[in-house]
Amino acid sequence: MATQADIYQQVWDVVVVGGGMVGAAAALGLAKNGFSVLVLEQQAPNMDWNRQTPVGIRVSALTRASENILRNLNVWSFIVQNRHHPFRSMHVWDAFSSAEVTFNAAEIGEANLGYIIENDLIQSALWQGFAREPNLAVSLGSKIIDLQLPNADDAIAKLSLDNDKTLQARLVIAADGGRSQIRQLANIGLNRQDYDQCAVVGIVKTELPHQDTCWQRYTENGPFAYLSMGNNYSSIAWYLPIEKQQWALSLSDAEFAQALGKASDYRLGQVVEVGQRGAFPLIRQHSNHYVKHGLALIGDAAHTIHPQAGQGVNLGLLDAAALVDVLSAAKQANRDFSTLACLRKYERWRRGDNALVQRSMEWFAWFYQDNALKNGVRQGVLPIVNHFKPGKNWLMEQALNGREALPSLAQLYAI
Does the keyword Nucleotide-binding apply (predicted)? Predict the structure, then answer.
């Protein structure tokens, strides 16, 4: 692995800006395919994990495709030996009608419908993998102040840092989140919608067992979900109007527990223990472009969606895996992987799928709004969905395994 002095002396194949889950997956996948990779991040994640590590409040519901990506990157075993929580069914109902739907993994011959895993653990597992890749290095703490993309006179991208140093790369990957500085420096615009909602998240213990089931109820304020974790613990996702965010965070633990019980219609009984909680605003945004010559956006830097179905991280990991496929194919054919023509293959692959999922989540939220017409439609349609096994099984297959055109890393044992 390169020393800190060395990182400024060479031209990297790829510099990944952002070492979160998506950026780390892209970096690790590219390093395994022979690229020299430098990851820029402000600070390293907690690397000292065990089963007693305090539970984080931000979790993801990983699909089978995401599980395969982590398996193929050789980091899944680290997650399993620490904490992972398979959920075997999902139960959805609302406060405005008697309609309910239950999805059960056994109905499609699967052991589970996915896993609830802490974001911090996923990131730590990927960083554990960095140490096994001699052509991957990490630089911590430096801030980017300017970006120069390749042009007719210079085929190398340059990142100017606040320590008066410059990094050089054939390709820059922006994995620096929804407020991506790299996207802004590259003058890539985006379409943005503010939902005027927030998500209140945390870890709680309920009176009744969750039965390895994710429970989601639609209320007058928005969805409320229990995401099953160990024992009787669940991660909560409570969607509220943005003006109620401070109210929810300012409640005492006893008041908060009472409010959660009411929001869930006491489906798991009383909330008997409340841990740390937090909240974040909900927005949808989609970059006008994912690529320029010498630049690719992945994950939240390219798109953010309503989190109610937990698809954000899954989409980001598919971005990373698709980009690894496109760049690796170009490298194997001795073609320049930084060109716009090459990178547009990645954009065409992922942008349409991401837009479709964004719109699907918005339609789903619209369908569950409280008004007489929609309440009546749900009352009539959902029992049909619940009892029409071919349709319900297709929905589960799509949610778990995704579309057929999966990147290599998202298929089982690609490496």
Answer: no
The model's pTM: 0.93
Do 247 and 166 meet the contact criterion of CB atoms below 8 Å apart?
Answer: no
Q: Which residue has the higher pLDDT, 65 or 308?
A: 65
| Residue in 314, 318, 307, 115 with CA at minimum distance from that of residue 214 | 115
Contact 85, 56 (CB under 8 A): no
Side-chain half-sphere of 187: how many Cα atoms within 13 Å?
Answer: 3
pLDDT of residue 118: 94
Secondary structure E strands in 98-189: 100-104, 114-118, 136-140, 144-148, 157-161, 166-174
Burial of 319: CB neighbours in 10 Å, binned 0-12, 13-18, 19+: buried
Residue 334 is given by DSSP the state T
Query: No. of H helices and E strands in the chain?
Result: 11, 19
- Are the C-beta atoms of residues 226 and 214 closer than 8 Å to each other? yes
What structural domains does the chain harbor? Answer: 6-192+284-410 (3.50.50.60)
Q: Which of 84, 400, 397 is nearest to 228 (CA)?
A: 84
Relative to beta strand 190-206, strand 271-287 is: antiparallel
Q: Please, what is the Cα angle at 169 between 163 and 172, to 5 degrees?
A: 90
Q: Could you say which DSSP state residue 264 is in?
A: T
Q: Let me know if 143 is exposed, middle or buried by CB neighbors in 10 A (0-12, 13-18, 19+).
A: exposed
Look at the alpha carbons of 15, 19, 20, 26 in this order and tell me if their dihedral is positive or negative. positive
